[in-house]
Amino acid sequence: MSAESKLLLDRWRLVVVLIWLAACAWLLWQRWGAIHWFALGDTDDNMRISQVRAWLNGQGWYDLRQYKLNPPQGFDIHWSRLVDLPIAGIILLVRPLFGGKIAEQTAVAIAPLIPLLLTMVAAALTARRLIHPLAYIVACGLVLCCQVALGMFQPLRIDHHGWQLAFLMLTIAALADPQRVRGGITVGIASALSLVIGLELLPFIAVAGASIALRWIGRREAKPRMVSYAISFAIASAIGFVLFASYANRAPVCDALSPVWLSTILVACAGLLLLSQLDPAGWRARLLLALGAGAIVAGFYWFTWPHCRGRLEGVSPELYKLWLSNVREARPIYMQNADTIIAGLTIPTIGLIGAAWAIWRARRDEAVYCWSSIVVLSLFAVGMLFWQVRVGPAAQLIGVIGATFLGWHLIGWFAASERMLVRVFGIAGAFLLVSGIATYAVFPLLPTEQKKDKPFWDKVEHANRTCPTLPSLHPIALLPPATVMTFVDLGPRLITVTHHKAIAGPYHRNQQAILDIHHAFDGPPEQARAIAKRHGATLLLVCPYMSESTLYRSRSPKGFYAQLERGARFPWLEPVPLPKGSPYWLWRIK
């Protein structure tokens, strides 16, 4: 082994941190303008900083009611304070030195990069444990090539998905941990922390737990991993519930870590501990007992919490039709454009091929159980893409492990060549292949989606780009505080960068207010006036051609919004002048 290789082997943690720091520098430079303009592009990022502000301004730790939406009562959001902690910590550190504005800019820039480090460390650990001690370099490089997943760690992306992805990768690293007890404890804690944040990755957590049970079924020696997992998962979930469950989440709600899921987790963990005590010698007996325990857990959930049998969001059929079915990330991957399909499926597919090859090579080794877990998670993730494309980031990161295995062996094969050109171009080509970068060359060859009314869609793109900006919202922020009736997707941005309140934001617990906004813009003008009065709204704000407006325009061509867009005016609406070039139309509601 050369001195360079030995240095990379001995200082692997430092190397990972250096790669992460280089990535941070690149991402911060790339997003510097957006950081300066506080361009939180996603509604959840805006809501997250609003929640952090409310907490720092004195709102209770367990009170997650957002009072600036649906005033005066507000609505309870289904999140927890766990993800608020690093954001608030950075603000409190920076604010005394540079003031509140720079403190918030610093927080939204740096906070998303912290879970990226955990993700890279977990990927490196997994590669070292399953592939080769030096394969961690390939794994870290591939993490940075997952463009869909990397978007969850970019500066300004302060929502909780980055942390959940980091805990998912930590779970995979723990499944590959040769020390069974430590591995089981890590999976249990990572799973509990992910559930404390939200239920988005609940199916992957269940698959990871099932893989631990299956490993015990195949090998009795795996019992310490299962026991430590069951104990740590139960204890960490209970502690997480006590520390982070909001007042609203202490009720038996279905969309957060509540008594519903805590009780189910405790029953499942008790079942695993009972299995470990029985521990029959034959694998068939262990399989039958595990199936029976799984049936008991499923029956407990089904009959104890019957109101959670359907969609966990609990939205009405009308709200699903009007709103949720139109959310792009809630649609399957085959309903996306060609670029999204290729980008979303490339690394997961390559990773699945690599993991399948790894299973074959490790078929007589205990590592086959680790690779089997990764293959099951990969298959599950790819299958979930055909339900909702929102699992794309998780599918990409899971695929990194198998892609690293494939890339490492391809690189090794080319590196062994006696020809320098083969070594140089072969290694580069192998990385381009397994990283999915090579597929980008296909994008220019894909048929361009031709929209029938290009000038109209150009206006939509312009509105989406300009309406949420600080300069566009500044004149509205100068007006006296008011409750504003506006688009659902504008609500979180409005309450974040102005002192105004809004009726609705795109959150399922806010469903009646969402329906009210849809009914207002879809229905007749007098209905809109009555809805505004009921919510105490004194301003009406619309951004013509913004994406949400196209729904009202196409769905209800004779509705209130469509009439506004065509220039109709009503005696109960008094125009409020805005600066020339403003993308907004604003009225005072008499």
TrEMBL record:
The chain crosses the membrane at residues 12-29, 106-127, 133-153, 187-214, 226-244, 256-275, 287-305, 341-360, 367-387, 393-414, 421-443. The keyword Amino-acid biosynthesis does not apply. Keywords: Membrane, Transmembrane, Transmembrane helix. Signal peptide: none annotated. Coiled coil: none annotated. The keyword Cell cycle does not apply. This is AcrB/AcrD/AcrF family protein. It comes from Sphingomonas changbaiensis NBRC 104936.
